[in-house]
């Protein structure tokens, strides 16, 4: 296959899993990028792409709905915050990884973890007192929040407002 054929095949949802598996090892990173985005890429190929040196490929694979949980666990510790962001958003991310992502240094990653339907009430409760108002707002919108979590968000908002302006 020439480059154009490879790119077209990697991007086509009707491409066979065997072809996608072959293209997952292509020397061209853009072909691998397209394979990582393809929803029909087999789990074995996604696992391989999760270890790619190119962070653009890793963040695309983290977005893939067929990404195996064990690879999501690996990517939850990726050095690139965009990869961790998409792991936190992935509906297949296991609870243990969401617990880790809830402590991420990047508030957008923590917010995505707070919005994930797999997050435990305990982890959601931890995020209810996050220093970022953006994260707390996401926690307050999570349909799995409890009354205690709602009170924690309100209390934290009030306490931070008091710290900023004690006259309020």
Helical fraction: 55-70%
Number of beta strands: 0
How much of the polypeptide forms β-strand, as a percent range? Answer: under 5%
User: Uncertain runs with pLDDT below 50, 5 residues or more?
Assistant: none
Largest sheet: none
Q: What's the order of the H and E elements? A: HHHHHHHHHHHH
Counted by DSSP, the helix tally is 12
- Alpha-beta classification: mainly alpha
Kindly give the count of domains. Answer: 2
Specify the oligomeric state: single chain
Silhouette: elongated
> Could you tell me the mean pLDDT?
91
Quote the distance from N terminus to C terminus: 69 Å
Radius of gyration in whole Å, from Cα?
19 Å
Short description:
The chain has 168 residues and is mostly helical. Helix content is 64%, strand content 0%. It has twelve helices and no strands.
Q: Which structural traits does this protein have?
A:
mainly alpha, 64% helix, 168 residues, elongated
Overall description:
The structure is a single chain. With 168 residues, the protein is an all-alpha fold. The protein folds into two domains: 1-67, no CATH class; 76-168. Helices cover 64% and strands 0% of the residues. The chain is built from twelve helices and no strands. Helix 1 runs parallel beside helix 3 (29-37), helix 7 packs parallel to helix 9 and helix 11 (133-141) packs antiparallel against helix 12 (147-164). It is elongated. The model has no long low-confidence stretch (mean pLDDT 91).
Topology, element by element:
Elements (H helix, E strand, L loop, with lengths): L2 H9 L5 H7 L5 H9 L5 H7 L5 H9 L5 H7 L5 H9 L5 H7 L5 H9 L5 H7 L5 H9 L5 H18 L4
């Amino acid at each position: 296959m020439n480059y154009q054929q490879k790119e077209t095949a990697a991007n086509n949802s009707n491409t066979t899993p065997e072809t996608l598996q072959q293209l997952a090892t292509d020397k061209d990173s853009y072909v691998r990028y397209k394979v990582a985005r393809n929803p029909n890429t087999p789990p074995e190929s996604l696992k391989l792409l999760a270890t790619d040196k190119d962070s653009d490929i890793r963040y695309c694979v983290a977005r893939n709905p067929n990404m195996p949980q064990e690879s999501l666990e690996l990517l939850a510790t990726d050095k690139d915050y965009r990869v961790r962001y998409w792991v936190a958003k992935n509906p297949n991310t296991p609870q243990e990884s969401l617990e880790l992502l809830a402590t991420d240094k990047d508030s957008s990653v923590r917010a995505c973890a707070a919005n994930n339907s797999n997050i435990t009430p305990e982890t959601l409760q931890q995020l209810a007192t996050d220093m970022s108002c953006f994260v707390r707002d996401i926690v307050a919108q999570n349909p799995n929040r409890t009354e205690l979590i709602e009170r924690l968000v309100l209390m934290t908002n009030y306490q931070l407002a008091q710290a900023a302006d004690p006259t309020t």
